[in-house]
Amino acid sequence: MASLTREDRKLQTRSAIIEAAAELFAVQGIEATSLDRIAGTIGLTKGAVYSTFANKEELIDAVAESRSVLISEDPLFRSDLPLREGLRSIAAEFLALRPTLTREIFFLELEMFLYAQRHRRWGDRELLSLREARREAAEQLEAAAAARGEVLPMPAEDLCMALEALLTGIAREQLRDPGSLSDATVERLIVGLAGDAGSG
Question: Are residues 95 and 187 in contact, defined by beta-carbon separation less than 8 angstroms?
Fold first, then answer.
């Protein structure tokens, strides 16, 4: 077997650190988990962690990115697909992804939320990034709706935020009480965001 290059070893180390941090953050909490503990879990020194990540917050960002469950909003931006059908497509993707939503992902999401509240500088940066992503999505949604000759049921940015909140809430509820909502109900809730969208 060919030996690993230096770059391959660096990538493996980075991945191992992220995996160890994700597990410890979910079990112990972000603030209670030291870089020493993360390093020790995988047989590294804290110096090795610092040679991969400049600081703990850079590692937190990497963990968040590695555990994010992305559901594409692209169906909402298609000029040939009415809003209701775009939401139906997103509902189908969400239902297909639901089995991959683990307890670790939700614990990490909660930890990230708490960390953002306790560390305002980091939290403000994350919120700014989230708002920018929502603004961009809203602009794409408005352009697609105009191309379809469709009137949105609410401001585009509100619709993007409502969809995000709805998906997160449904996913949390189903983790707590699996089967509490049928697939048909989940689809109805998501598609319901279309309201009475129609031709202008």
Answer: yes
Output the six-digit token pair for 174.
Answer: 């189903």
How far apart CA 193 and CA 1 sit, in angstroms, is 54
Report in angstroms the alpha-carbon separations of 48 from 43, 52, 63, 191. Answer: 10, 7, 17, 48
Percent of the chain with pLDDT over 90: 74
Q: Residue 100 — pLDDT band, cuts 50, 70, 90?
A: confident
pTM of the prediction?
0.82
What ranges in the chain are assigned the alpha helix state H? Answer: 6-28, 35-41, 46-52, 56-67, 83-97, 103-118, 120-148, 156-176, 183-191
**Based on the domain organization, do 159 and 177 belong to the same domain?**
yes
Together in a domain, 93 and 184: yes
What lies within 8 Å, CB to CB, of 25 at 6+ separation is 33, 60, 63, 107, 108, 111
* CATH code of residue 189: 1.10.357
Q: What does the alpha-carbon distance between residue 73 and residue 87 come to, in Å, rounded to a whole number?
A: 9
